[in-house]
Amino acid sequence: MSGAPTLYLVDASLYVFRAWHSMPDEFTDADGWPSNAVQGFARFLMELLDRARPQHVAVAFDEALDSCFRNAIYPAYKANREPAPEALRRQFAHCKALVASLGLAVLAHPEYEADDLIGSATHSARRHGMRAVIVSADKDLSQLLADGDEQWDFARNQRWGADGVHARHGVHAHQIADYLALTGDAIDNIPGVPGVGAKTAAALLAHFQTLDALLERIDEVPFLRLRGAKACAERLRLHREQALLCRQLATIALDAPLPEGDARFARGNADAAALGALCDHLRFGPMTRRRLYMAAGLDFAPPGVASVSA
User: Fold this and answer.
1) Cα torsion at 269, 270, 273, 277 (round to 10°)?
2) In the sheet that 105-107 helps form, which strands lie side by side, from edge to edge?
């Protein structure tokens, strides 16, 4: 897909949480609530827009904190996570409002996670002859990569395509969900197959290619040059249905509802009034305000000074 238009898809939650944990808590909004997460997210967003200058971009947020379709399949999904404190939930709302005020598409849905929205947007982009750049360090999202796509760990400035997934994770892009079905994912409370670790899972998938083939040919496992191969085969027999369930949980949906309108997510016009009101409420300093206005293609004047059109 060389030369194809590029759609940038941002995993917002990753960068909001990173800012929440790394930015000092001295920042507050006009109501006295903490604003450190939105301050850090705004800086990330400005740098991304400055460096990438995307013409097509969407920013995905997690609203399905306990109402995701996966919870209906497996109630314990992500049950190990503490609920987000109110101070952080409020800042997520401000981050979404900031994205919208800059003329960028916001992706959010009560039944689908940000990963699913990014996956569905990536799938849609291909139908429109576009390639995707997924801005996230999350390995789960690597399963979405096809020829021409890239994943971008923005903080480390590392980028890789589908052919670079194996070097990073030990399996190919199309094997990520099967890999997580075997190893589990402690972050999402996905159990996997007990006793099957990363190296064993990678070795099994290197030999059988898919989870389905592995489960159909379990009788071959004891004869593999694999430490504890016989015990591994017994675990796979015992936890076969659990492995299939875990793959269902780890597979990113490609059919989540997306906003109606421009399916290519072209950058829209910024809303100067909404952006100005947010800057006031969040008590952004003049440097941040200036950078946000520049990123939005708007004229900037310090508060209280009339803006002069170019």
Assistant:
1) 160
2) 105-107, 57-60, 6-11, 131-135, 150-153, 158-160
Q: What is the pLDDT of residues 104-143, one digit of tens each?
A: 999 999 999 999 999 999 999 999 999 999 999 999 999 9
**Cα–Cα distance between 34 and 20 in angstroms, integer?**
10
Burial of 45 (0-12, 13-18, 19+ CB in 10 A): buried
Q: Is 75 helix (H, G, I), strand (E, B) or coil?
A: coil
Q: In 128-271, where does DSSP find H-type helix?
A: 165-169, 176-183, 198-208, 211-216, 229-238, 240-250
Q: What digits encode the pLDDT tens for the residues 204-239?
A: 999 999 999 999 999 999 999 999 999 999 999 999
Q: Give the tokens for residue 144.
A: 């979405």
Residue type, 150: E
Distance (Å, whole) CA 147 – CA 83: 38
Superfamily of domain 173-250: 5' to 3' exonuclease, C-terminal subdomain (1.10.150.20)
- Return the CATH fold of 6-168+253-296: Rossmann fold (3.40.50)
Does the pTM surpass 0.70? The reply is yes
For residue 259, give the 3-state DSSP assignment. coil
